[in-house]
Amino acid sequence: MAENPVKWLFLILASCLCFAFVLSESNLLIKKTYIVQMHKSAMPASFSSPLEWYSSKLKSVMSDTQSEGEGDGENRIIYSYQNAFHGVAAQLTEEEAERLKQEDGVVAILPETKYELHTTRSPMFLGLEPEESTSIWSQKLADHDVIVGVLDTGIWPESASFNDTGMTPVPAHWKGTCETGRGFQKHHCNRKIVGARVFYRGYEAATGKINEKNEYKSPRDQDGHGTHTAATVAGSPVRGANLLGYAYGTARGMAPGARIAAYKVCWTGGCFSSDILSAVDRAVGDGMEGKAIKHYALTNGKPTATLAFLGTRLGVRPSPVVAAFSSRGPNFLTLEILKPDVVAPGVNILAAWTGELGPSSLPTDHRRVRFNILSGTSMSCPHVSGIAALIKARHPDWSPAAVKSALMTTAYVHDNIHNPLQDSSTAAASTPYDHGAGHINPLKALDPGLIYDISAQDYFEFLCTQKLTAMQLKAFSKHSNMSCHHNTLATPGDLNYPAISVVFPEDTAISTLTLHRTVTNVGPPASHYHVVVSPFKGVTIKVEPKTLNFTRRNQKLSYKISFTRKSPQTMPEFGGLAWKDGVHKVRSPIAITWLPPF
Ligand SMILES: *[C@@H]1O[C@H](CO)[C@@H](O)[C@H](O)[C@H]1NC(C)=O
Ligand SMILES: *[C@@H]1O[C@H](CO)[C@@H](O)[C@H](O)[C@H]1NC(C)=O
Ligand SMILES: *[C@@H]1O[C@H](CO)[C@@H](O)[C@H](O)[C@H]1NC(C)=O
């Protein structure tokens, strides 16, 4: 095999150099993948299908229609999207993409992005100790009939964590299927794994083409990552000892009764946005109601869920703490929206592993294990997803924003020795820029008392405050007739978010900033809340009204909160606002930022 590694190295280097040369010579001819959003209702009646229309659009901008086999726009399409999004992913040169941008019916063109998986792999097993179950709450719940879409590296169906013994039949509204492929048979799907599909550079193309890389077409997890995250979200309880060669109690997901639909979008090289979009689009078509819980870890290295030490491990003090590698705020895109949202366990997480690869993921590791221990935002995300599934099961009518509000307003900000949550990277107290609203508290999140709800139109109104072009706005409004009303949100900070971030401008003439919020009563019909706000050095705060008296369930009441300049600070100031009724405490973090000069 490796008779002459030096020569090989040389050859590889030489070909890289050649390639680099070719690249610089003819950059304009290199095709890249672009996601093209189309305005579906602008399709002329002469086309029989959107795909036909998209193909003809592509053809009209193609530079090389003369050359053989290139004449058809359809050849350039690697995905066509039809449920959550309308358009295609297509291979285009830069020039072609520029021309396509000018075409009628084209809403937006984005070059594809590649995302990395956010895992810190434990190369060897770490010490295990009997673990207090992290999910006692889930036994009390009927958390079935929620299907969680897991967009990751696929799933290893043989794992005991995906055992469906005792589960009820799959709900009728579910239209998804299990793709067969190398090493993955339909019978691998059961009442626990209700869907498994693979997306690889157009393999799932609506055109019916099979990608040249069809050796990759199995939804089976040959990496371990997806099996681990899926089991963390919704793995069935697996009791017993010696599963790893170590004794321990029970491994289970956050929502053991929930079902899993696995969409394989990540490979050794990463995850491509055109594949991810296709999986989301398909999940909606499969019956996911547009609410597929996508892996936060895939969202651009700025996950909204971050990490803390496993809070349930007994005897660790202080616990939890924010992990050094946790993602941090602020949100530089829009300071008025505080990020991150919450922290959740993400360090040393025990869950199922693939049988196709050793626990270290190294090809030289010939050990085979049923479970593995990993850390990362990839592990934190499925904790939040699983808890979100439990909340959704308890409250099927809640919107995604309501579920998120429940997670945020019930999160805690103190550790088990009653100090503010520590940041392990500084050994000092963490702030909302590190922990957001705090550490998730599943039991409380099931009964939050009040929620801050946000509709699709509200999100659109928020985007209207973001200085986007009409074209960019159109890309966000599913119905092209959605338009900005401009008087509904005075500032981006008025989005009905469960966190409050106030930004004082340089202009000192502006002395008072006022934000508006609306809460919905999801607790007892007659509920009386009063407000408590922490003190700030830089501002005085006034909340109006100071009490909220509800008389019925789902009643909405609004309040406003005014911040008056007192003594501008050089550093951001943090605190919180809580509505209390004697049973519930509905807390929002507050961040106050002073833009320079001071
Ligand atoms: C699934 O779980 C049941 C009950 O614990 C057990 O009897 C059965 O053997 C398990 N099946 C597999 C394939 O592990
Ligand atoms: C936009 O159009 C859709 C259908 O084309 C319609 O259902 C919806 O009510 C319209 N929305 C507004 C705000 O006019
Ligand atoms: C709510 O009820 C309390 C006690 O009855 C009363 O003092 C308060 O003014 C009421 N709040 C509002 C906003 O009506």
From TrEMBL:
Biological-process GO terms, alphabetical: proteolysis
Active site positions, chain numbering: 152, 225, 378
Gene3D superfamilies associated with the record: 2.60.40.2310, 3.50.30.30, Peptidase S8 propeptide/proteinase inhibitor I9, Peptidase S8/S53 domain
Domain Peptidase S8/S53 residues, every copy: 144-288, 318-419
Designated name of the protein: Subtilisin-like protease
Chain ranges of the Subtilisin-like protease fibronectin type-III domain: 494-592
GO MF, one example: serine-type endopeptidase activity
Record has Signal as a keyword: yes
CDD domains per the UniProt record, alphabetical: Peptidases_S8_3
Pfam family, one: fn3_6
Keyword terms: Hydrolase, Protease, Serine protease, Signal
Signal peptide (UniProt feature, chain positions): 1-24
Transmembrane feature ranges: none
InterPro entries listed in its UniProt record: Peptidase_S8/S53_dom, Peptidase_S8/S53_dom_sf, Peptidase_S8_Ser-AS, Peptidase_S8_subtilisin-rel, Peptidases_S8_3, S8pro/Inhibitor_I9, S8pro/Inhibitor_I9_sf, SBT
Domain Inhibitor I9 per the UniProt entry, residue ranges: 33-118
Family of this protein: Belongs to the peptidase S8 family.
